[in-house]
Amino acid sequence: MTTAHHDYDLEEPLTSTARPLKNSVITVRIIKSFPYRNVKNIVLHDYDLADKTAKDLFNDALNKIQNDGSLRPFRNVKYDTLKVYTHAHGSKTVNLVINFDHDEDWILDLQNDKKKLFEYGIENETEISLFNKDDYLRFKENPEEKW
């Protein structure tokens, strides 16, 4: 399958463009608790951004949570949202748990089964947060961290 976009660049590679879309590395930041900063990363290697949708990524992450023993403490949250935390080579947020900016354009549409991940601007080494949206909205209203 060929795509109409520039897939990768080995002449002037950045980490975001040095790998083909079908062979990307994506980090999913599983957020259990915003105030307590309970976050665990899973790294998905050889992930296909050209053919996978947001719903595929969501299901792959949930499957990893259910089947990886180290993620057992993260199983009691009802995850329902994926949001880009940071793009490779992009600026990082000052908040260590979640990026409060870009709610309107960085939250992935889990109902759209046609839009592929690369169409959201997701490239190799993008970090994506997985969380419960109600918990996020409560934390955004009062972003107090607890220890």
From TrEMBL:
<protein>
    <submittedName>
        <fullName>AIM29-like protein</fullName>
    </submittedName>
</protein>
<dbReference type="Pfam" id="PF10209">
    <property type="entry name" value="DUF2340"/>
</dbReference>
<dbReference type="InterPro" id="IPR018794">
    <property type="entry name" value="UPF0538"/>
</dbReference>
<comment type="similarity">
    <text>Belongs to the UPF0538 family.</text>
</comment>
